[in-house]
């Protein structure tokens, strides 16, 4: 009983300690928009293809409460870590409780996961998506359910996760390789159930995307921000060369996949091939979009699946225990500094709003340098009963005070 309860208590405790600064009620401009006009924000999510977020909000949430988000997200994160611990212990007969506990802790307590949850507006749905993927894994790995039923159920969970956030597709693919690497006795079941479920889930997302296209206009934010393949001719020579290297790498990667499938059919060793495939899957987003942009939010679960898979294969639990502690401390520090940044933003916003009210300035412009379609968004702020439009140009913008009285 101690061997079962102690690891679970440690996983829950470490997760709550790591995300302690996350409980502070901080919010950014998108959250402000949701609080003022949820319809506008949800329309934005639909235009970006995040249908699942909108469905969950309309069915279960209705009214967004930013202060409540951490009290829902952190327990769900702890539950996801405990769930991974259970899956490893249940399906890997050679696993040890301490090892499984360490990897489960690292799975959610790392800065890349926090980079996604930093935006509390979608944190709850993202965490639910994580649990959906783990549930699909559980269904695919079990032998107590008939194969057609397994594929149907796991497809439903995987579809929901991708509909919440498209980049879950990259995470699911890495997790597929993760299970193949650490569960050699389950490889046939994984190939038969997990891979078809992922492919069908992708088709379901594509069908949903096409159906919604009949009644909404999709934003080009994602393509303008990340997708470089459609801009190949206008890019610099260095970037073009990097993209050609990516294409060559894709061909090599496909070759490794072909060899892996062939060796699997003949029950030959796959470990080294799976290690290579799992590690390279970390860059699947960059290859798909032809970009070298560092996108920690997009890596999210992909990073966890890749790192945990590689560390689990080279099983040195005491050494990796130190790594997990270092990850927790770094994540805690990162969230603490994020809170300080939020406080500075809030202070600046209040000062600007006070000046606007006092001097009746017409416009304050935040100037940035991102996408054409995001050049101007209007958001209302309220100070002393006065409603004043703020023109926001791009994201991560610098503040430029145009009114003469606000030059300071």
Question: Main traits of this protein?
Answer:
408 residues; 2 domains; four-stranded mixed β-sheet; disordered C terminus; transmembrane helix; transmembrane
Question: How would you characterize this protein structure?
Answer:
The protein is mainly α and 408 residues long. The chain contains 17 helices and 4 strands. Strand 2 and strand 3 form a beta hairpin.
Task: Describe the protein's topology.
Layout: H1 2-18, H2 29-36, H3 38-47, H4 51-61, H5 69-91, H6 97-108, H7 111-117, H8 123-141, H9 147-164, H10 168-182, H11 187-212, H12 221-225, H13 237-265, H14 271-280, H15 284-289, H16 296-313, H17 317-359, E1 364-367, E2 377-383, E3 386-392, E4 398-400
Parallel strand pairs: 1-3
Antiparallel strand pairs: 1-4, 2-3
Helix pairs in contact: 1-5, 1-6, 1-17, 2-3, 4-9, 5-6, 5-8, 6-16, 6-17, 7-16, 8-9, 8-11, 9-11, 10-11, 10-14, 10-16, 13-14
């Amino acid at each position: 009983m101690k061997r079962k309860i102690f690891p679970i208590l440690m996983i829950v405790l470490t997760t709550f300690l790591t995300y302690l600064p996350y409980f502070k009620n901080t919010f950014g401009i998108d959250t402000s928009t949701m609080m003022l006009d949820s319809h506008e924000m949800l329309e934005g999510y639909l235009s970006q293809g995040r249908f699942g977020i909108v469905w969950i909000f309309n069915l279960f949430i209705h009214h967004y409460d930013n202060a409540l988000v951490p009290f829902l997200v952190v327990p769900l994160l702890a539950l996801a870590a405990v769930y991974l611990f259970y899956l490893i212990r249940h399906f890997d007969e050679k696993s040890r409780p301490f090892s499984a506990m360490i990897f489960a802790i690292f799975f959610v307590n790392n800065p890349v996961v926090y980079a996604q949850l930093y935006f509390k507006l979608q944190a709850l749905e993202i965490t639910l998506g994580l649990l959906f993927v783990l549930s699909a894994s559980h269904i695919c790995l079990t032998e107590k359910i008939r194969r057609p039923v397994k594929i149907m159920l796991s497809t439903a969970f995987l579809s929901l996760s991708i509909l919440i956030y498209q980049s879950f597709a990259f995470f699911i693919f890495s997790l597929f390789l993760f299970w193949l690497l650490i569960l050699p006795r389950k490889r046939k079941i994984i190939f038969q159930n997990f891979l078809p479920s992922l492919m069908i889930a992708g088709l379901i997302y594509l069908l949903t995307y096409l159906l919604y296209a009949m009644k909404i206009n999709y934003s080009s934010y994602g393509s303008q921000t990340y997708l470089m393949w459609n801009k190949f001719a206008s890019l610099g020579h260095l970037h073009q060369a990097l993209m050609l290297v990516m294409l060559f790498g894709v061909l090599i990667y496909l070759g490794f996949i072909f060899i892996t499938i062939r060796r699997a059919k003949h029950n030959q060793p796959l470990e080294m091939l799976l290690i290579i495939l799992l590690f390279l899957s970390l860059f699947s987003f960059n290859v798909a979009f032809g970009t070298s942009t560092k996108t920690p939010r997009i890596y999210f679960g992909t990073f966890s699946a890749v790192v945990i898979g590689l560390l689990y294969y080279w099983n040195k639990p005491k050494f990796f225990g130190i790594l997990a502690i270092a990850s927790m401390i770094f994540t805690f520090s990162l969230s603490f500094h994020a809170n300080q940044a939020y406080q500075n933003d809030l202070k600046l916003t209040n000062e600007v709003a006070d000046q606007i009210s006092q001097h009746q300035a017409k416009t304050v412009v935040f100037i940035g340098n991102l996408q054409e379609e995001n050049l101007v968004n209007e958001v209302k702020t309220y100070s002393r009963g006065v409603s004043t439009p703020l023109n926001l140009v791009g994201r991560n913008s610098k503040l430029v005070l145009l009114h003469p009285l606000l030059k300071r």
